[in-house]
Amino acid sequence: MANMDKKTYDALFKKEDEERKGSPWLFVSAVVLALVAIILLSVFLASYLGVVHLRSEDGGSTLTDPRKDITYELAPMCYEPVAYDVHSGVYAKYGDTEYYMVRDADPTKYLCTIDMNVYDLYYANDISLPSLAEFAPNYTRVCKVEAIAVMIGSIEAEDTEKLVDYYLSANTVDSSLISGVEETLYLKFMSEEYNFMYYNLVYYKTKNGERYLYDRTVGRCVDIGSRFSDVL
User: Fold this and answer.
1) What pTM, to 2 d.p., does this model score?
2) SS (H, E, C) 25-59
3) I want to staple 75 with a disulfide (CB 3.0 to 4.6 A). Which of 9, 79, 131, 225 is the partner?
4) How many Å is the maximal CA-CA distance in the chain?
5) Residues 101 and 147 in one domain
6) Same structural domain for residues 143 and 70?
7) Pairing of strands 52-53, 62-65
């Protein structure tokens, strides 16, 4: 250093000073990049770990939650969730299928899927689904199904109870003999106890004016004749 002239010394000092001034910015940049990486990893892990990854040995009709040791089964077609919980997002997945919480229901007991506005209900196999009598309907949504189900009318509590009582007590007919159907409606029964699901019956009206109620799950079909024509 003793043999270094002043000009060379000043240049070297200036270079070292610039390097010292630049190093904090390099440090800050590294910290910012590290924080961004941590945030992205946290979002990914929260998304992945927050969703229950279900297992199945039959292609999805029966599903198991390995974390809580819960087994869900696909409910018969007469049962349908009223709505899914839109605020909770995806609750579980199996393959590419997403499962949602049923609104107002315990997710350890009920889940549902949505496909083209069609809802499938899944229920934990440690509970039993109610029969129509146990469901105790007190209101009916009358729907017509085209691309989606559209509510075209309703039946209040008193008439709903009369309709269900007649259906459960009347003699049955062979549903395979029904022909010439010109109108099909879906009666979505609701109840106070099971306010998160429907129990569905199908209403058929033929070209000859015959009218039937049919449960596709248990196969019970009843000829209602001209009864309840004021509500159906």
Assistant:
1) 0.77
2) HHHHHHHHHHHHHHHHHHHHHHHHHHCEECECCCC
3) 79
4) 119
5) no
6) no
7) unpaired
